[in-house]
């Protein structure tokens, strides 16, 4: 099921300028398309093998927006890494949002499970609506 939100401009005719979709499964929050893409790219780059790879069904327990980003807390025990480090924070994936806003992402791993995903911009407001995104590998310093 999808929830649809309409955003109208402030003109007198109230013309529709954009539509925002949030995926909802049985009244549970799930990963957005952007979050799914970030995690898939992260697993690929890091060479991680994951149990329960159906990212569309992963439950988000809480999602908080900070103004310049977000943090999504995942349901404990949903995504298990079967190889690699048990506890770490990884930030190898970046994205260009709506063709102009650079964003970085951190994946939090606790006891071999993906615990949370954080997204942030470099000082710009996080867009209310993400129409397009392009993923890229972050340069390691």
Explain how this protein is built.
There is one protein chain. Strands 1, 2, 3, 5, 6, 8, 9, 10, 11 and 12 form a ten-stranded antiparallel beta sheet that branches. The radius of gyration is 16 Å and the shape is globular. With 141 residues, the chain is mainly beta. β9 and β10 form a beta hairpin. The protein contains one helix and twelve strands; from the N terminus they run βββαβββββββββ. It is 10% helix and 49% strand. The longest helix has 14 residues, at 33-46.
Name the features:
two-stranded antiparallel ribbon; 1 helix; mainly beta; 10% helix; disordered N terminus; 141 residues
Round the Cα radius of gyration to an integer and report it.
16 Å
Kindly state the mean pLDDT as a whole number?
83
Total beta strand runs: 12
Number of helices: 1
Order of helices and strands: EEEHEEEEEEEEE
Count of folded domains: 1
Determine the strand fraction and express it as a percent band: over 45%
Oligomer: single chain
* Structural class estimated from helices and strands: mainly beta
Task: Outline the fold blueprint.
Layout: E1 2-8, E2 16-25, E3 28-30, H1 33-46, E4 50-51, E5 59-65, E6 69-74, E7 80-81, E8 88-90, E9 93-97, E10 101-110, E11 113-121, E12 133-137
Antiparallel strand pairs: 1-2, 2-3, 3-5, 4-7, 5-6, 6-11, 8-10, 9-10, 9-12, 10-11
């Amino acid at each position: 099921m999808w929830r649809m939100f309409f955003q109208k401009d402030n003109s007198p005719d109230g013309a529709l300028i954009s539509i925002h979709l949030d995926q909802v499964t049985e009244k549970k929050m799930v990963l957005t398309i952007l979050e799914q893409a970030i995690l898939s790219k992260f697993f690929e780059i890091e060479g991680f093998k994951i149990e329960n790879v159906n990212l569309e069904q992963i439950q988000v327990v809480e999602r908080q927006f900070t103004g310049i980003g977000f943090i999504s807390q995942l349901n404990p025990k949903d995504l298990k890494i079967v190889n690699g480090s048990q506890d770490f924070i990884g930030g190898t994936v970046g994205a260009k949002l709506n063709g102009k806003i650079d964003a970085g992402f951190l994946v939090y791993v606790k006891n071999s499970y993906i615990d949370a995903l954080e997204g942030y911009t470099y000082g710009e407001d996080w867009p209310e609506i993400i129409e397009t995104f392009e993923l890229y590998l972050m340069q390691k310093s």
